[in-house]
Amino acid sequence: MQYFVSPYNKEAKLKFPKNITIYDTTLRDGEQTPDVCLSPDEKLEIAIELDKLKIHQIEAGFPIVSSQERQAVKAIANEGLNAKIISLARTKKSDIDAALSCDVDGIITFMGASDIHLEHKMKIGREKALNVCMKAIEYAKDHDLFVAFSAEDATRTDLDFLKRLYKKAEDYGVDRVHIADTVGCISPNGMNFLVAELKKHVKTDIALHCHNDFGLALANSISGLLAGANGVSTTVNGIGERAGNTSLEEIIMALKLIYGVDLGFKTKHIQNVSNLVEKYTQIKTPPNKSIVGRNIFRHESGIHVDAVIEEPLTYEPFLPEMVGGQRKLVLGKHSGCRAVKAKLDQCGFEVNDNELCKIVEEVKKNREKGKYINDKVFSEIVKHVTGPFDP
Ligand SMILES: CC(=O)SCCNC(=O)CCNC(=O)[C@H](O)C(C)(C)COP(=O)(O)OP(=O)(O)OC[C@H]1O[C@@H](n2cnc3c(N)ncnc32)[C@H](O)[C@@H]1OP(=O)(O)O
Ligand SMILES: O=C(O)CCC(=O)C(=O)O
After folding, report:
1. From the centroid of its chain, how far is CA 224?
2. Considering 281, 315, 350, which residue would you say is the last residue of a domain?
3. Is CB count within 10 Å lower at the N or C end of the chain?
4. In this structure, are 326 and 369 located in the same domain?
């Protein structure tokens, strides 16, 4: 058995759409994390890793940003990857032309649709905004692009206006509409309501771009899928503007193991992609980050280690191999005899029960004095308790 999750998950009769598309925006929204700047080579390497994972679409960048950005997006678009390559464009001809110059398969064209965005950023009214958006969609469709239209700040946009925008976008032949929860401010129930409402008015595919300002990006994405959306935007390690976006690894594994929806991802590549993104973005992944954090398969507590040695699924919902991770047993203040014995066995040392108890005591004492129990410290403890040995 590779995983063991709650059997009660199945009792909730949930219905997900048949075909769910994950479009990953690590290389665009992820790169918008303050201080991050990826080189074209780094972007290409990350795109190749995402492709190995069998990602459906890669949002490779925002071509109008710079000539180096165009170079990067173009290189990714021409790499022959299986994933569809898309890029971001404002509702401006110049932005769409920049995307076209990069040979992408499609674009996400966006416009802030809420009154606060229209008034303070766009400085135009709703009618003008609607016309500008349709012109952009028309222009991109005329150039045979896959076109997604994103209503930025959709979750704070007047519902009637949002319905009109998406309906009109549908009439203009858009391939997908995006609900962008730009400042991560909707609840899972709010998202469920919004998607259900919009589905009464548009037949086009609906994707969700959720931010994590309240830690709800994953829940909001799943809630939206359950209401009938069939696309989700993600980033590796959940990076992105402010609190970041829905994390790719979390949604893949939650859908697969918690909800029983296997999207065919090669999950054993997950840790690799995560490490690569951490390395190039220099954003340290928190140790407790779900799925890919350093502590996800590390155990120190004696009671846990004792059980994990017998059967890892006692204290792990799934095995590290599933995501290309590794289990590690750590010695410290919370260690018990079983953990220390396992370490001694690994080092090839035989001790009697009395010595084992003393070693456990010394491990705790040393850690409480501030020392990490690495191999060197452990050897010194064993030496101190049993006399000299040859490691
Ligand atoms: C929610 C999101 O994540 S949206 C993506 C955000 N990403 C980025 O901004 C990263 C890259 N950005 C950049 O490199 C630059 O901001 C550029 C190249 C896009 C634009 O640079 P500049 O021309 O110097 O504009 P500046 O950054 O000062 O302001 C943004 C402009 O875009 C306009 N704008 C914003 N959204 C849209 C839109 N959907 N359609 C048309 N114009 C838009 C703003 O109104 C503003 O226009 P103004 O210059 O006439 O005032
Ligand atoms: O809808 C999208 O895919 C992009 C929108 C976006 O980046 C945002 O609103 O935060």
Report:
1. 16
2. 281
3. N
4. yes
**Which ligand sits closest to the CA of 154?**
2
Q: Are residues 166 and 267 in the same domain?
A: yes
Residues in the chain: 391
Number of structural domains in the chain? 2
pLDDT tops 90 at residue 388: no
Nearest CA to ligand 1 atom 33: 122
Q: What pTM does this model have?
A: 0.96
Q: What is the ipTM of this complex?
A: 0.98
Q: What is the CATH number of the domain that holds 112?
A: 3.20.20.70
User: Which tens digit of pLDDT belongs to each residue from 156-187?
Assistant: 999 999 999 999 999 999 999 999 999 999 99
Can you say how many angstroms the Cα of residue 163 is from the centroid of all Cα atoms in its chain? 29
Best probe residue, ligand 1, of 65, 68, 97 (max atoms within 8 Å of C-beta): 65
Q: Is the dihedral of CA 267, 147, 235, 195 positive or negative?
A: negative
**Which ligand gives the minimal distance to the CA of 69?**
1
Atom of ligand 1 nearest to the CA of 136: 40
Domain boundary among 281, 312, 333: 281
pLDDT given at position 389:
52
The residue whose C-alpha atom lies closest to atom 17 belonging to ligand 1 is 65
